[in-house]
Design brief:
CATH superfamily: NAD(P)-binding Rossmann-like Domain
Number of domains: 1
Strand content: 5-15%
Helix content: 40-55%
Structural class: alpha/beta
Strand order of the largest sheet: 1-2-3
CATH class: Alpha Beta
CATH topology: Rossmann fold
Order of helices and strands: HEHHEHHHE
CATH architecture: 3-Layer(aba) Sandwich
Length: about 150
């Protein structure tokens, strides 16, 4: 393993512990009001795992499972509270713009649609997951991967 413990812990603090703490902070208000939506941000890396990205991939897998468990735990309380997540593949951002073209090609070659996702596509999925219309889906991980993963 090529990751140092301090780096591993930092990634888990940001990607997992922060989600736990945010949920812990907002769920009491949601329970009181009888309504709420939580949409966590995972990654396709959390479903597939990426070599060389042990801390990141495993932390995003933890986000997916944290979402599943919380979704189930809050599903049967008679409240309109849902907890879901989204797992995007590579999305066209400034960070991706700064990558060498061959690195971007390596990532998009894994995507059947053959391209990066767009921010507005990810945002639309999040908006749906956070909407009143998404009232019968909880503990689910929405895939935004251009077909890279279909489970």
């Amino acid at each position: 393993m090529q990751v140092e413990l301090a780096d591993f812990q930092r990634v888990y603090d940001v990607n997992v512990k922060a989600i736990f703490l945010c949920a812990k902070a907002v769920l009491p208000s949601m329970l009181k009001s009888g309504y709420g939506r939580i949409v966590n941000i995972a990654s396709i890396s959390g479903k597939d795992g990426n070599a060389g990205m042990l801390a990141y991939s495993s932390s995003k897998a933890a986000v997916i499972n944290l979402t599943k468990v919380m979704g189930k735990e809050y599903a049967n309380l008679g409240k309109d509270i849902t907890i879901n997540c989204i797992a995007p593949a590579v999305v066209q951002t400034a960070m991706v713009d700064a990558m060498p073209p061959e690195q971007v090609k390596y990532m998009t070659d894994k995507i059947p649609m053959g391209r990066t996702g767009k921010l507005d596509e990810v945002a639309a999925t999040i908006l749906f997951a956070a909407s009143q219309e998404c009232s019968f889906t909880t503990g689910f991980c929405f895939d935004a991967s251009g077909g890279r993963t279909v489970y």
